[in-house]
Each structure stands twice: as C-alpha cells, then as structure tokens.
Amino acid sequence: MHAICLQVVGEVRLIKKIKDGLLVEAKNDKQAKRLQSLVRFGEADVVVKTHQTLNYSKGVIYCSDLLNCSVEELKEHLLVEGITDIKRIQTKKDGKLIDTPTHIITFNSPVLPKKINAAFHRLEVRPYIPNPLRCFKCQKFGHITDKCESKVQICTCGQPPHDGTPCTLPIKCVNCSGDHPARSRSCPVYQEEATIQRIKTLDKVTYFEAKRRYNMSKNINLPKSFSDVVKTTAPAASNLKIEDIIKALIPEITKVVTSIISGGAGISGPQSQTFALPSKKTISRHGVQYDSQSNTDSVAEKRKASETGSDTESSILNSDADLFIYLNLGVNKKRVVHGSGQAGKRKGDLVKSLSALLRKTGTHLKQNSAQKMSEDQSLFRGRSAT
C-alpha cells in the first residue's frame, strides 16, 4: 500500500490501516487534492473523503456579551476567524432551556487557535473535550446506537429486557458491575473513557490509538516512594521489626542532625563555631525532595571515600537504612562542611556520631534480613519434606 501511495501522490506524512480503510495524512493542499481525486488505488476502486474529526478542531469560549447576538449572527461575523460552526450551550432550569455564555466553536483547521477576536473582545480558546461516547442500547462505551452489534437493549439492572414487565432489580452498571447507572460520572470505566477522550482530542489521534496509548500508560507501574517498594518486596513481619528499629534510633539521629545544623550546641566539650549549610538546588521525585548535586555523586567517589577512611557521610554503609534515613530525614552526604582547628574537630566528631548510628541501623537491618531469610528457608525445607 505504501509503495502504491508513493507512485500516486509521492511521500505522505502518514499512512495507516484503520478499521474500514486507510488513513492518509497529506503534507500539503496539493497532495490532499490529488488524493481526493482518486477513484482507483492500485487494483481497487476507492472512495476518498476527508476525516470527520482529524481535519477540524473544537474549542470553548466564554463571553456573556455574546448572548446579545444570535448564533446565526455570530457565524456571519466570525467567518474570518476560520470558524465553521458555533453551538451555544444550554442548561435546563424549571423545565426550560436557558442559554449560557459558553460556546463550542468548530474551526476548519486541526490546529486550535489560542485566541479569537469577537467584536471588541479578545477571547481565549480552550480545547473542547467531549464526553465519552456511550451506546444507549448496550450501554457500552466507544460506539453509538446505529453501530451497535447487540440485538437487545440492556436494562438499568445490567440485564436484557424483562418481557415488558417493570424492572424491580437494583440498578447495576453493565460496565463495572457497580451499584450505579452506566451513565454515572463516578463509574471507573466512565472516568477511563473520559481520559481516553482527552488523549484523543489533545493528541489528535483516533479513538483506538488514544485507547492504546492509555492502556500503555496504565501498564507502566512505577513505585511512588521507598515505602511502596518496602511494602511490595518485604514480608509484613520483617517490616514491623525494621520500623521498631528505626523508631528507636530516630530520636538519637534527630538530636545529632540538629546539633550539626546548630553548630554543635548541646554536645559536651568546647563551644564550636556556628556554620551554615550551603544552599543547593533541590529536586523532587515521588514527593521526596533531595539535593541534586549529592544525587549525582558517583559510586566510585563513595567507594574511594570509604577505602580512605573518610568520616564524611559518603563513607556510611550503603544499606536500606542509609536510603531510608536519607530520604525521610533529608540527610545530605555532601552538606557537612568541616572547619579548621577545634571547630573542625568538633564537627568531625558530630559526623562520626551520626555515621555510627547509621551503621548501627544498617547492621540491625542486615541481621534482621538474614534471620528472616533463614526462617523462610527452614519453612521451605519443612514444606518440601512433607
């Protein structure tokens, strides 16, 4: 098909097989007119027509002054803006339809303008996201009644009609089996379809392509935080022991960190000078802020610092406890600044204290993990023997 298209009109921007034919995106008007004049494509007779939605765009404008004009007057005066259709939104109040200042505008271009001129107004144009398409016959989404393949109309209870007798069964959604009508906006399937419609409108793709993209994004399950990883990878009993260890050590760690920030106040010995932590840009990932510079420290630098016996936090045991405290308490591996003389010695002692606490936490975690692994292995051997 692509080779035939090259011979007939040359290289096009897109050619794709869809449900009932081929979707071709032309590069320019000349190529589009050449395609529209085709009656045969290779050995097959074809009918060429413009796509119903991809060649147009719809936007929403809001202006109360436009209520002074009829829709026909608006169409006549706004043709210079490339507008092909205008629809005024109405609401029902006390059984009567009332016009609202909201208008849906259709443009003869796939690119939606950001603003349009209406009389002396400069109006912002927002993308129009249509409601999910729902069939009134089978209550499923994605098609209309005229193209429904169902032979019977589904009742509000989610079942076929009851032979003319009134339905006394509770309401049940045919899409999610929830206790609400299929049209309910709280239905999770409705919300999924609303997201698909948003992708379809903003990305200018077909419904099936938008649904494919949505399903791909839904299948990507990235952990939101370190605690989520722990919940999905560690047994519940092990989690409780780790939490007890952390709770016991957090007051001591907090005391040391506070002392470092305040310049060593509250620690026995000569009073050291107060020093400020350098301000560095922080970035946020999964709701946790951390220092961007320390995050780029290479593993080789940490290993080198550990081998040389450095007392900075970069030599702390690289364990789960290190990660947990680093994320939740904001401990930064490169933010400890050593001074000179007695003050530098005092700050070094503080760092050693913090490092010892972290190593202690890491040791507890390793022992706890080894004990749990031994228990699991014993349990596995016992089950195998039986």
From TrEMBL:
Recite the UniProt keywords alphabetically. Answer: Metal-binding, Zinc, Zinc-finger
* Name of the protein in its database record: CCHC-type domain-containing protein
Enumerate the PROSITE patterns for this protein. ZF_CCHC
Q: Does the keyword Metal-binding apply?
A: yes
| Molecular function (Gene Ontology), one example | nucleic acid binding
> Does the keyword field hold Transmembrane?
no
Domain CCHC-type intervals:
134-150
Q: Which InterPro entries match?
A: Znf_CCHC, Znf_CCHC_sf
- Region (Disordered) residue ranges read 286-314, 365-386
